[in-house]
Structures are given as structure tokens and as C-alpha cells.
Amino acid sequence: MKVLRFGSLFLLFIFLFGFIGCKKKVNEPIFPDEEQVSNFMPPDGECLFIIGQANEAYMEAYIEEVRSDPVPAGFAFYTSLSNGAIQGDLPRYKTFMDQYPNTILQLAIWTGERQWGDPGYYLDQITSGQFDVNILALASACKSFGKPIFIRFGYEFDGWHNAYPPDKYIAAYQYFVDKMRAQNVKNVAYVWHSWGVGAYYGRDDFPDYYPPLLLGEEVSQELWYPGNDYIDWVALSVFGIGWGDLSQNDVVQYFIQFAEEHEKPVMLAETAAIKTYGGPDPSWVIPNTQWFEHVFELCSAHDAVKAFTYINVDWEADNPSSTWGDTQIQTAAPEVRAHWNLNIATFLHGDSDLYDMIDYP
Questions:
Q1: Which of 31, 50, 119, 311 can pair with 74 through a Cys bridge, CB separation 3.0 to 4.6 Å?
Q2: pTM of the model
């Protein structure tokens, strides 16, 4: 019996030692084998101009009709981890961007919406390993670009339309970044992107997915924060709120303060001077400079704001059910175009020295 007891204790010791030694610490991030070059942040007083979104024809129209020399510093596209999107989208984006040296890819990763399943259903699929093959394909594609890349994983994480429970979002975000870093992807900076208005915490709609908050705890975007080691940029969307005074907007100012406290640059990741009233109107174009005055003032007033992405599209032509109008610069009122040209010239574009300014490679 003594021998058996000693043998059992010995086996138990070996099991526990092996389990503890092999178990990865919770939230301990994985980093590339070599230190990443940078987070591609320009120096104080400078702000990147990125144009979107997704449709190359709109981007080319801007270059041809508004400003061709120099071209924007970056181009914004979208993809997902399912249905062969990575394998189909990334080669197309690379072909387009190879035409424009010294530019940046801004890539948004779609991670599900509430209309297609239970809150966080797609995030669960990610953490279960269902899309690992496609994450590896994305890692390989990113390394092939030979350009700096901003990835917005699970963009607008706090939006009503997405309904991402914070715990599921954080787990999936960390899982994704760890997988990318394990492939030694060093030309990607990771962007944490809010929808820029009050955060949606679906306790009333989905009590099984959103636990009660702790006593005294308030709903804020920080509930979804994956941690400093996983975030290179803090980002937000600016659509209809841009027609108001952003210096007095509580969410916008909260985000800038949050970024400064965490020593992260701010990206305006999706913006457009959309129509905010009435039904569809295919004749609507941007009528005045008010929206741009507010957004450009936000960029100039805060050194933390280091990137501005403008969506230069005709929303209603692409989607007849949209009520957002045509936010293209080239179709806007003449005073809007003149105001744009004067101000956008002060932003960083795809010049030959852009990579030096953002410390790439």
C-alpha cells in the first residue's frame, strides 16, 4: 500500500507539474519572434488621410476627379473570416494597391451581426477554431503585401447592430491577434474600433448573454477593451454626429481622453458627411462645409488624432434603401470641394517619404 500511495502521489505530481507548465496564462499575449517595427503612428502634428470604402471604382474616381498627386496615404477595404472571403478579397486588394506605392491598407474584419444569430455567435466560432485556416491565410496574405496594414477586427464592437457581449468580443479579439502574431506578422497594427455613439450593452434584450454589471459599474466602451498589449490604435466612427460640435460630444471626447491615458493614437476609422433627415433622395449631395469644419477641427485640436478615413461613396446608388445620400467630394457643392481641397492638403498622403514618417519598415 505504501508503494502504491507513493506511486499515486508521484503520478499526481507529474500531472500537475505538466499541466501548470503547459498551460498558457490567461490574457498573456503572443508577440512575433522579432519586435514589430512600429504601430505606424505619424509624429505629432501630422494626420494620415485614408479613403474608403471597399469599392475601388469610387477610390479611383476620387483620385481622377479630386486629387491625384499625391494619392491618399491609405485605402480602406473589408473582408471576413468565412466563405472564402480572405482567399478572394486579399489578392484583389493587393492588385489594386500595387498601383500605389507608399500607401497603407486599412482592413476591416467582419465578425457577425445580431440579425444573423445570437449575440456573439460568430465570435464563438472564431474562438472555437472554426476559422483558424482562414486566419492563417490572412496572416500569409498580409506578409505578402509589403505594406503597413491597419486591421480593424470586429469593427464597431459596441454597436446595437452587432450586439457583441464584451466577454465574447475580448476573447475573440485576443484569439485573433495571438494567431496572427504566432505567424510572425510584423506589418500589421491592430485597431480597436467603436461606433462612436453610446455603447450598446444588451442586458434588457439578451439577459442570458449580458450579465448584470457590478454595483456602481457604468456602461462604457472600456468594458470591451482587450488590453494595452493587444491594441495599437483606438478608433471611432463619425457619421451624423459630425454635423454637431464634436468638441462638446461626450463620446468623442471620452475616446480621445481614453486614448491619451492609454498612450494610443486615435483613428477616425469610418467617417462621412451623411444625410441625417428624410427618406431616400438620389439628388442629395453635401450642401455645405459644416460637417468638415467640425471634423477637421477635431483633427487639428488633438495631437492624439493621427488618422482620418473618409468614405467617398454614393450610398443611395449602392443601396436604394439607404437614406444617407451621396457623400462623394467630387459631387458636393463647390464650396464644399474648395474647403476640402484646402484642408486635405495638410494631411499625410502617399508621398515618397510617408513610410519614413510612420517608421515603416
A1: 50
A2: 0.90
